[in-house]
Amino acid sequence: MKTLVIAEHQHDVLSPLTANCIEAANKLSNSCDVLLIGSKLDTIQKELSTLPSIDTCLLVESPKLSHPIAETYAPIIADIAKSYDVILMSNSTQTKDILPRVAGLMKITPLTDVIEIIDNETFKRPIYAGNAIQKVRYQAQHKLISIRPTAFKPTGETNISNISFKSIQPTIPQTKTSWVNMAEATSERPELTAAKIIVSGGRGVGSKDNFKKIESIADLMGAAIGASRAAVDAGYVPNDYQVGQTGKIVAPDTYLCFGISGAIQHLAGMKDSQTIIAIDKDPDAPIFKVADYGYVGDLFEVIDLLQNSMATS
Questions:
Q1: What is the DSSP letter of 157?
Q2: Beta bridge partners of 165
Q3: How do residues 75-110 score in pLDDT, each as one tens digit?
Q4: Looking at residue 281, what DSSP letter applies?
Q5: Is 129 helix (H, G, I), strand (E, B) or coil?
Q6: Fold for domain 192-312?
Q7: Which end of the chain has less Cβ packing within 10 Å, N or C?
Q8: CATH 3.40.50.1220, the chain: domain bounds
Q9: What CATH number belongs to 3-167?
């Protein structure tokens, strides 16, 4: 079975999600090809060389492809993908823009947010905000799949692969879309989706000023900051912090949450965390059903204790 992984990168750095895709590809075959599209790809090529199980890296390089515009990338991917049985992408923001266009051009139905690969034709994916798992038999000639990265964590194995690089010169489509700029928030804190520790706050935090206490705890722990949709909607934090079905899907080593009751949509975004620690004043809060450790009480008392403990250690 010929498998193609679509590599993601930004600011000349390979996205860690690409390694998750390769891990998923290993469930389907012993090796895969990787498609790398962009401009000035030398650094990213070196990063790919450290990942195992790659046969060939297909390079599509041009100054016109320096930014991931879906209208430009999709026709290139669709044309190359016709030679493969399975095309894998991570379920990222970029993929959600590109994948539907690729599916339309190839006239196939994609399978999205896969969390388990049973065999070459059988997959599992969450539905109803993660309350049910759907088992799908997918028998398309060309399978276009996006995977949930948190479900396919790389083993950590790195080696210098015997990867070969092959340049491809496809016709770059003329589009009506052009890149203007990127306005992104910068922070010294870890990226939310890649952080090993996340400290999260919900409606129970009470105010934007109170949320600064969550931020101080996160900074002491070297953690990323998350939030429930209720906290975002209340204006405590920007929506970049939102964890959940309509936010970011995370699976850190430790997820520490304050004042989050545990709505279904939020649980769908963080329940794969290895250790969940919840603090809430409501003993019947749904968050305690998924938490490994729970404390019923005043979250601000816990924050003060943590701050004093870490400040003196």
A1: -
A2: 57
A3: 999 999 999 999 999 998 889 999 999 999 999 999
A4: S
A5: coil
A6: Rossmann fold (3.40.50)
A7: C
A8: 192-312
A9: 3.40.50.620
H or E stretch at 128: none
What are the structure tokens assigned to 110, written together? Answer: 């994609």
Rounded to whole angstroms, how far apart are CA atoms 27 and 44?
A: 24
Round the average pLDDT of the chain to a whole number and report it.
91
Which pair of structure tokens corresponds to residue 252? Answer: 């850190």
- Residue limits of CATH 3.40.50.620 in the chain: 3-167
Question: How many other C-beta atoms are found inside a 10 Å radius of the C-beta of residue 187?
Answer: 11
Q: Identify whether the C-beta of residue 26 lies closer than 8 Å to the C-beta of residue 3.
A: no
Rounded to 5 degrees, what are φ and ψ at 154? -60, 150
For residue 298 the two structure tokens come to: 């005043």
Pick the more confident residue, 172 or 311: 172
Q: How many CA atoms lie within 13 A of 8 on its CB side?
A: 24
**DSSP secondary-structure letter at 214?**
H
- Give phi and psi for 5, each to the nearest 5: -105, 130
Q: What is the pTM for the complete model shown?
A: 0.82
Q: b vs e for 87-98, b when ≥16 Cβ sit within 10 Å of the residue's Cβ?
A: bbbbbbebbeeb
Distance CA 145, CA 189 (A): 31
- Return the amino acid letter for 1: M
The structure tokens 């790389």 sit at: 154
- CA 3 distance to own-chain centroid: 20
Angstrom distance (rounded) from CA 198 to CA 150 = 14
Instruction: Determine the Cα–Cα distance for residues 23 and 265; give it in Å rounded to an integer.
Output: 27
Residue type, 79: D
Residue for token digits 């049985």?
85
